[in-house]
């Protein structure tokens, strides 16, 4: 698994937090809000998360842990319903199999 350099994660997290403070100070400023959202997106890509808040939390955890500890954390999984499970692992599908989609029926 490839992991980002801790120095880059720290730099992006500082950038995100600085723009977060600026955005909270002047929420009507479109330039500040756009730059804040861009910094959140960059952090999401860097940390492999879909939400900027999750990415910031993951970045903070990553910076606190050693490389070995981070690599041993289980990846987040989605259940078949698309929701996260409490343990982070996908639950096996229960009940009957889902109906085939429209393309499968045409054959």
- State the order of secondary-structure elements, H for helix, E for strand: HHHHH
Q: Averaged pLDDT, please?
A: 78
Structural class: mainly alpha
Strand content: under 5%
Sequence stretches where pLDDT stays below 50 over 5 or more residues: 88-93
Number of helices: 5
Q: What is the number of E strands?
A: 0
Distance between the termini: 40 Å
Largest sheet: none
Considering DSSP H and I runs of 4 or more, what fraction of the residues is helical? 55-70%
What is the C-alpha radius of gyration, as a whole number of Å? 19 Å
Shape: elongated
Describe this structure as you would to a colleague.
It is built from five helices and no strands. By secondary structure, the protein is mainly α. Helix 2 crosses helix 3 (52-64). The relative contact order is 0.11. Residues 88-93 have low confidence and may be disordered.
What's the SSE blueprint?
Layout: H1 6-25, H2 30-47, H3 52-64, H4 67-72, H5 102-106
Helix pairs in contact: 1-2, 1-3, 2-3
Summarize it.
It contains five helices and no strands. With 107 residues, the protein is an all-alpha fold.
Describe the structure using short key phrases:
mainly alpha; elongated; 107 residues; 58% helix
